[in-house]
């Protein structure tokens, strides 16, 4: 008798009933992963491995240099970006109060990553590039609270992705302190920590090379530049 394993919805578990009884349990949103096995032991091994992998997805990110990846059906993909037009005293110098900056997000649903379901952006004066990248992440996580499907945040900022998958956990354990000095954008990172913790079981991250071939990344770059133009 086959054993069926379901993971990713309210019917998670192992089932030994006929497929005709199990199949309706897989027709939910979000869509679960499921598989049939010849033995209960094999089903349990697969279930445990999938569960462990699922629980760790929010603590790592996939690197996609060419911007091309296969989007899972029923999964949402939120592209984020932040930037500023830093004139400073020289290129890369301190941000001036009159320098324009902006963040942007674009939400897609797999497998279609060509037409966004929702976009948002906002521009400011005198804000740093990293601050805008963090604000984009924060607004993406807040937007994800409005749906229950699994989602992936796609960013071209390794500062953001290294922090959200690793550094912020160290800071939190140390009482939101770090040995090298003050934590930039601390209040935002504390909010992000709370949001990630609450949504960890359905969250993943991808890094793409900026301004390359990813349509979603190009879209959010255009959105934030339009926001700065209109400021």
UniProtKB/TrEMBL annotation:
Top-level EC class: hydrolase
Coiled coil segments of this chain: none
Superkingdom per UniProt: Bacteria
Entry EC no(s): 3.1.26.4
GO BP: DNA replication, removal of RNA primer
GO molecular-function terms, A-Z: metal ion binding; nucleic acid binding; RNA-DNA hybrid ribonuclease activity
Domain RNase H type-1: 72-229
TM region positions: none
InterPro entries for the chain: RNase_H, RNaseH-like_sf, RNaseH_domain, RNaseH_sf, RNaseHI
Cofactor(s) this protein requires: Mg(2+)
Keywords: Endonuclease, Hydrolase, Magnesium, Metal-binding, Nuclease
Catalytic activity: Endonucleolytic cleavage to 5'-phosphomonoester
Family (UniProt): Belongs to the RNase H family.
Description of how the protein assembles with itself and partners: Monomer.
Name under which the protein is recorded: ribonuclease H
Organism: Weissella oryzae (strain DSM 25784 / JCM 18191 / LMG 30913 / SG25)
Taxonomic classification: Bacteria, Bacillati, Bacillota, Bacilli, Lactobacillales
């Amino acid at each position: 008798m086959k054993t069926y394993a379901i993971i990713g919805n309210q019917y998670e578990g192992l089932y030994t009933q006929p497929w005709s009884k199990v199949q309706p349990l897989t027709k939910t949103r979000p869509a679960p992963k499921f598989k049939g096995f010849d033995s209960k032991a094999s089903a349990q091994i697969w279930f445990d491995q999938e569960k462990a992998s699922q629980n760790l997805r929010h603590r790592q990110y996939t690197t996609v240099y060419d911007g091309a990846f296969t989007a899972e059906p029923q999964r949402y993909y939120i592209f984020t970006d932040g930037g500023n037009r830093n004139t400073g005293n020289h290129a890369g110098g301190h941000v001036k109060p009159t320098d324009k900056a902006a963040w942007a997000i674009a939400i897609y649903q797999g497998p279609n990553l060509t037409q966004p379901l929702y976009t948002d952006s906002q521009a400011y004066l005198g804000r740093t590039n990293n601050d805008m990248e963090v604000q984009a992440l924060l607004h993406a996580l807040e937007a994800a609270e409005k749906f229950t499907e699994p989602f992936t945040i796609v960013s071209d900022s390794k500062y953001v992705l290294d922090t959200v998958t690793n550094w912020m956990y160290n800071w939190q354990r140390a009482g939101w302190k770090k040995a090298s000095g003050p934590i930039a954008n601390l209040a935002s990172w504390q909010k992000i920590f709370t949001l990630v913790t609450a949504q960890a079981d359905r969250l993943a991250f991808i890094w793409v090379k900026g301004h390359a071939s990813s349509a979603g990344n190009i879209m959010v770059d255009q959105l934030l530049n339009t926001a700065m133009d209109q400021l």
